[in-house]
Amino acid sequence: MKGFWETTRGFFGVGNNNNRQFFASDREADKIIQFLISLVPEANKIQDALNAYSRAQQLTGPDRSLSFVTAYFSLENFIVNRRPPDVSRVYTRSELRSAVRDVADINILDDALRLVFLSESEQAAVFLFFGVEKIFNFLSSRFGEAHVKNLVSSPVSRTFLSNAISPQIHKLDIKRIANAAVPVERDVVIAVFKELYKLLYEDMFRLVGSEVSQKVVDELFRSIQRSYDYDLTSLFVRVLPDGVLDNERLTFLSREELTRKIREATKSETEKRELAERLAKELSEAKEKIEEKVRERTVELEREKIKLDYIAQNMDMGALLFDGDGKLLFANHAARRFLEVGDAHDEKVVEALSSKFSSCTPQKCIESCNAKKPLSAVEVDTGRRIFLFSSTCLFSGTSNQEFFGALIWIYDITDTKLLERSKNEFIAIASHEMRTPLAIIRGYAETVGEMMATKLSKVELKKMMDGILTNTVRLLGIVNNFLDLTRLENKKIEVNLEKFDVVEIVSQVENDFREQAKEKNIQLIVKIPKQKLPFINADKAMLQEVLVNLVGNAFNYTNAGSVTVDVSIEGGSIAIRVIDTGIGISPKQQLTLFQKFQSLGRFSERREYGSGLGLYITRLLIEMMGGSISLESSEQNKGSVFKVFVPIAT
């Protein structure tokens, strides 16, 4: 008797003796198995499949074919039931078989493996014919081929198998099924083979008895079960006659029944699942739109980043960005040029900054930020160049204002400083050169005036001489202001702090202006507390100049009324207020009152006004002594109140 698999070759028109085709089939099977193995990164997880594949390579004939099938199904079941990283990607069974068709020519595979890739109806016909062929062989070997032919000819002639089974009975021409004018459905195939199995089994049972018949069918079932998956094995069990392999049938059909009941039990969930799928699709589409917007925004941000980077790299000022731990994140070209490090790595940049500018190290900058006191206008002279440093502290926009970095700015102010020095030198030289002749003019004018006053009675001549003297004094005052300003701004004035009674300076100022008060018919009032005042710590000459400037301004801009100097104790300081009843100061002028070249006369109806340096110099002087000055109040046409604070001596 021929073996079950010995006659299967040739079902698709492939001859049994075509060795070239046989070896081509093996090559395609190898391609398939190797492809499936490549989808599993860790080979130790598919050891059973690898063992079956190894056996297939060592075997021949039907056993070789079965081992290939076993290896294939073992790999397929592993891949479709796993997810990454166990497999390279997720596959459904149909997707995986489609991928296999792309890497191998299934048309020349051995029939046992090719069966897997056929359509449902073709697959059912070929697979179920395997069992029929086994029983055909058994009956033919015992009772002759004519017996089998007579047995099945009449029933087969009434089905789609009439043209598909060759005259020798033992072969099935699947092309005739595939190319039939009317497509053969899978359920029709199953029904026809169920009747054919019943016919063959009853004949075999009648001729050889129950035990032998059961053994033939059982051997067939075991062969199929070892090589094929659950779906095909259960298909074979379904077409067997009642009473044959009842236990096996119960096992497989119970599983099918359980699956059916699960489907029925979950049928009510179908709409929910469909809704969920629809929502998932909508969410997916929304996600794609959002991602597209994110991509567009990312491109925009990248362009803006390029622009900002270009601007930052090409600024004239140096910029160094540090994180909260002092690590350098960015240094532009100017900063690297100032530090003389070129394209050196970040550590060299930090080392150069710390060594060349010890007062502006990253650590000091971060400490100042943590103390909420960022570096501001730190000037460093390296001998060759002069730099100005400042820092910007970076805090999160959240409520806790968490510090996360600092930006150090470096300005090369060498040229600006040179210009300032040239200007200061010019002012100093010009002022010194002007002061001498002006002093001579003043002396001559005073002498001539004295002589004219005693010998001449012409009022007009005396008036002219008074004008010479007045304007000379005025010019000399402007020159002195320029000289004072230059020395103050360059910190070339020495401050001589000492302890003394403020009443002493106030009394001197009162005496200085007593005559002017009489001439303008303005009342000069000095208010000093009756109790002894504590000594102040100040420079006498500077404080006197401060009070002279303030009281002088009060008289200049007051036509009637009074000028009051009020001394009191406020906290740890002596407060000196200069109060007038003059023209007052406009709100606009108050904004720039203590800046350079801001003369009160420029904003009044007076045609004469000073250099605009008086209050600016006054502020510099009082601040050099550790005090402060402010405009306490002012109202146009009603007067102003200036307040000076001077520290009490400890």
Automatic annotation (TrEMBL):
SMART domains (alphabetical): HATPase_c, HisKA
Residue ranges that the Swiss-Prot or TrEMBL entry lists as coiled coil: 265-307
GO molecular function: histidine phosphotransfer kinase activity; phosphorelay sensor kinase activity
PROSITE patterns for the chain: HIS_KIN
Pfam families in UniProt: HATPase_c, HisKA
Catalytic reaction equation(s): ATP + protein L-histidine = ADP + protein N-phospho-L-histidine
E.C. numbers: 2.7.13.3
Keywords per UniProt: Coiled coil, Kinase, Phosphoprotein, Transferase, Two-component regulatory system
Domain Histidine kinase, residue spans: 429-650
SUPFAM superfamilies, sorted: ATPase domain of HSP90 chaperone/DNA topoisomerase II/histidine kinase, Homodimeric domain of signal transducing histidine kinase
Transmembrane segments: none
Protein's recorded name: histidine kinase
